[in-house]
Automatic annotation (TrEMBL):
NCBIfam families, alphabetized: PRK13529.1
Name recorded for this polypeptide: Malic enzyme
Keywords: Metal-binding, NAD
Provenance organism: Kockovaella imperatae
Malic enzyme N-terminal domain sequence ranges: 76-257
Necessary cofactors: Mg(2+); Mn(2+)
Domain of life the protein comes from: Eukaryota
Length: 564
């Protein structure tokens, strides 16, 4: 219990109905008397640990992941502290239930599973009331975090319309679990601008805006208005963009990132965690980032985000120009190697320096196998969702020319991985350094009695820390150098630096610890760049930052008619 009681005006059913303040059976006898709860609760007073034990048993009674997800959502609607305390104690077990892959199923069935509204829904027919609706949702709060999605590209399942509130809410939850962001200072938002999902449009129970998606100028105006309201009314809040479509994600990030602290996890988070894994791998190989030859198979938002992040890290580390750094990359999409002859098949938002010159390359060697044979890459990254595309021939060809080939099949879910880690390991005689987009069990190392631990390139190992560092430093924007500093810190914590047969990234169970270290690195960088607005102490920043973390613990309440 806190030494300073929290003053509240809520009493009776209103207090029990407040997920933020409800303690359930953990209200003390004194609190029950003061807040009119004595007859509304069973006689026994429980500790938080007892409540967690009971809730975990109830959770385990549900043997289907989607039902476990529903149970946790219900618990969250009743008691925030118990919800976060339960998941914190079982994070690795419950993460796939509160996020991918189970949350994708919950979002796909959002209209049928709907019970209670959460967050803020903004739609075109109500655009004239957007400011009032936004202020109502903020309810006088000073927010630290706003997570927003337009739900066009949700978790590999595509356009989900109003169900996008589920991904915004899930990301906000992870910020609390992995970075200690106060859930009372976070807001989940969906920009429900319509849907092109025929199944949803034909579903009589669909609860979203039943029109085709906005596009072009009307879409941009709608998003601009929302971002403008965030800047106007919550100028210090981190604005996290999530699961926007490939045609909008990078464009919107570039449009707004210099005017507000904005972060896009699909682009920057994916790029940052991949950069951390790669930095750990090249530490194992005793090479340098700028010496790598990097083939990216799959040039969508994730692939481009990774390429840009790695390119920018090279520039920061070496002073290379954007054009010279880009020469270390070969990007391949569904048409083959991205080069000048593709013409209008090249996506509009592709950085021109990544496009290979025709006279440098030729006309025939376009596909992955030919590119690998010619380039002799040190790094092979897959974001294609094309299962099995890293064939035995391709992997063995790569391994002919590289002592420790770095192979990152990052497509999700598991069934879409470009290569199974056990195969990549076997085809390289245990030499491959591997990171994947989904969790895999350790694999046998040929000729050794030990196993190779597969790193999971999980964005949640870094984006909460990047966000926390930006929030605590009150940075005017999240800069490239802040992201790179966070990635470097994550790389420094890699188990592989102590044992090359260990993982390139820390296990997810350590997410809270590593994200805090990432946050400290981001704070230091923000101060160094002069973008921090907070009064960050020059010494003992760790203690200063720790004091600001929210923890799922009950505090003592004291009744006050004036409330907080």
């Amino acid at each position: 219990m806190s030494k300073q009681p929290l003053k509240l005006a809520l009493t009776g059913e209103a207090l029990l109905d407040s997920a933020r303040y409800n303690k359930g059976t953990a209200f003390t006898e004194k609190e029950r008397a003061a807040f009119g709860l004595r007859g509304r609760l069973p006689f026994a007073v429980n500790t938080l640990e007892q409540q967690v034990e009971r809730a975990y048993a109830q959770y385990k009674d549900h043997d289907v992941a989607i039902r476990q997800n529903a149970f946790l959502q219900s618990l969250k609607a009743q008691n925030w502290t118990l919800f976060y305390a339960l998941i914190t104690r079982h994070l690795e077990e419950m993460f796939p239930v509160i996020y991918t892959p189970t949350e994708a199923d919950a979002i796909a069935n959002y209209s049928h599973l709907f019970r209670r509204s959460e967050g803020l829904f903004l739609s075109p027919p109500s655009v004239d009331n957007m400011e009032k609706d936004f202020l109502d949702a903020c309810d006088g709060r000073v927010l630290d975090l706003i997570v927003v999605s337009d739900a066009e590209a949700i978790l590999g399942i595509g356009d989900q319309g109003s169900g996008g509130i589920g991904i915004s809410s899930a990301k906000a939850v992870i910020y609390t679990l992995a970075a200690g962001v106060d859930p009372a200072k976070a807001l989940a938002v969906t920009l429900d601008v319509g849907t092109n999902n025929e199944k949803l449009l034909k579903d009589d129970l669909y609860i979203g805006y039943r029109e085709r998606r906005l596009h072009g100028r009307p879409y941009d105006d709608f998003v601009d208005k929302f971002v403008g309201l965030v800047r106007k009314h919550q100028s210090k809040a981190l604005l996290h963009f999530e699961d926007f479509g490939v045609s909008n994600a990078q464009r919107l990030l570039q449009r707004h990132r210099d005017t507000h602290p904005i972060f896009n996890d699909d682009i920057q988070g994916t790029g940052a965690v991949t950069l951390a894994a790669l930095q750990a791998a090249i530490s194992v190989t005793s090479s340098k980032l700028q010496d790598q030859r990097i083939v990216v198979f799959g040039a969508g938002s994730a692939g481009l985000g990774i390429a840009r992040q790695l390119r920018d890290a090279m520039r920061v580390a070496t002073g290379l120009s954007k054009e010279d750094a880009a020469k270390r990359f070969w990007l391949i999409d569904k048409y083959g190697l991205i080069k000048e002859s593709l013409g209008d098949k090249i996506r509009d938002d592709l950085d021109s320096e990544f496009i290979r010159r025709e006279d440098d390359w030729g006309t025939d060697e376009n596909q992955l196998a030919e590119v690998v044979k010619r380039v002799k890459p040190t790094v092979l990254i897959g974001t294609s969702t094309q299962p099995g595309s890293f064939t035995e021939g391709i992997i063995k060809e790569m391994a002919k020319h590289v002592e420790r080939p770095i192979i990152f099949p990052l497509s999700n879910p598991t069934r879409l991985h470009e290569v199974q880690p056990k195969d990549a390991n076997a085809w390289t005689n245990g030499k491959a350094l591997i990171a994947t987009g989904s969790p895999f069990h350790p694999v046998d190392i040929p000729g050794k009695s030990k196993k190779y631990v597969i790193a999971e390139c999980n964005n949640a190992l870094i984006y909460p820390g990047l966000g926390l560092g930006t929030i605590l430093s009150r940075s005017k924007k999240m800069t490239d150098k802040m992201i790179i500093a966070g990635a470097q810190k994550l790389a420094e914590l890699a188990p592989a630096l102590k044992d090359p047969d260990d993982a390139l990234l820390t296990p997810f169970g350590d997410a809270a610890k590593v994200n805090f270290e990432v946050a400290l690195a981001v704070i230091d960088q923000a101060v160094e760049e002069g973008v921090a607005d907070a009064d960050v102490p020059k010494t003992d920043r760790r203690k200063w930052a720790e004091a600001q973390l929210w923890k799922p613990e009950y505090v003592e309440y004291e009744y006050s008619a004036q409330g907080l």
